[in-house]
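User: Let's play a game. I give you a shape written as tokens, and you guess the letters that built it. Ready? Here's round one.
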């Protein structure tokens, strides 16, 4: 067992016997598997999925330790239940709100933190960061030092929230270690736990990103995943809609305004997605073959499309949402 070597990019055990199995490499002297090599150098992506129970087993093992946990989430796609992992991980936990750079600059850090703290959630700290902009990482390191219970700190979160990107940035900023995790906007890039020693006092343990069943990222092709994932500040688009008008987002989702006064719908999604407005819904049948859910939106609520983004709706509204039956949608108090 002492000869076992893991891929430094995704954490799988390296092997040179079966090209069809995970962990294959042409030479066991290599540090990364063939899948990570091709992803890093050629942008090629090979789908590897874990069963949901496998993620839960990993979380339960973390829960048996008393180590500090960093829970990373994406500000554009905040998890519906930010305390769901508490069922398995009772450890001290810091909530890290990543991708501040994806939101408009006018959105202040203080407001985002207040939004979370008003929910009275059980976190040691709530920290807004941007890996791309190298924003607020000094404070994150400081908070880790103040709250860690041992050298080990686990990093958890859904797929595509930027866990590996964050760790790579922390390596670059605060470590002499030259290890680099495999990064991709596509689901299930990290396959097993990967240990990264930042310094003598801190070892980060990256865990596989939880592939949330309701995320739209699971039901589109890799090209669309990249389109959905913003790589720069999004420019929200506001539409003044009247009853019986619609918004369609890139053939992925249709929102029909069924009932209410003239209303403001502001769409927060990647700039690469095309948005169409229909002034008369009855004349257009686009996407009406998809699953329909009806929402009675309260004053000052967001309509959230899991993995895609959200629509801020100012006044009360009744809407029909047409989307893939596997993709979850929900409403919440307005984030912005």
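Assistant: Ready! My guess for every position:
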């Amino acid at each position: 067992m002492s000869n076992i070597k893991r891929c430094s990019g995704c954490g799988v055990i390296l092997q040179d016997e079966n090209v069809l199995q995970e962990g294959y490499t042409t030479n066991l002297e290599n540090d990364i598997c063939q899948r990570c090599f091709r992803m890093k150098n050629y942008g090629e992506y090979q789908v590897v999925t874990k069963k949901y129970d496998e993620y839960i087993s990993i979380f339960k093992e973390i829960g048996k330790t008393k180590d500090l946990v960093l829970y990373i989430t994406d500000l554009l796609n905040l998890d519906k239940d930010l305390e769901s992992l508490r069922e398995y991980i009772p450890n001290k936990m810091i909530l890290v709100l990543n991708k501040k750079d994806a939101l408009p600059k006018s959105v202040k850090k203080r407001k985002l933190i207040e939004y979370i703290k008003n929910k009275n959630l059980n976190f040691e700290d709530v920290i807004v960061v941007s890996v791309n902009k190298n924003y607020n990482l000094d404070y994150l390191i400081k908070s880790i030092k103040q709250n860690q219970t041992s050298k080990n700190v686990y990093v958890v979160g859904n797929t595509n929230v930027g866990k590996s990107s964050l760790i790579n940035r922390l390596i670059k900023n605060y470590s002499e270690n030259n290890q680099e995790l495999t990064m991709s906007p596509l689901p299930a890039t990290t396959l097993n736990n990967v240990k990264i020693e930042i310094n003598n006092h801190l070892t980060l343990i990256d865990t596989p990103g939880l592939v949330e069943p309701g995320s739209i990222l699971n039901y589109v092709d890799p090209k669309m995943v990249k389109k959905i994932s913003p790589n720069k500040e999004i420019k929200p688009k506001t539409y003044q809609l009247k009853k019986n008008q619609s918004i369609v987002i890139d053939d992925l989702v249709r929102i029909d305004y069924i009932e209410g006064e003239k209303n403001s719908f502001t769409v927060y999604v990647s700039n690469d997605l095309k948005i169409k407005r229909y002034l008369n819904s009855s004349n257009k049948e686009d996407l009406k073959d998809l699953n329909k859910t009806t929402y009675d939106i309260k004053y000052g609520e967001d309509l959230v499309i899991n993995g895609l983004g959200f629509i801020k709706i100012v006044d009360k509204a009744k809407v029909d949402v047409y989307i893939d039956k596997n993709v979850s949608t929900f409403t919440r108090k307005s984030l912005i």
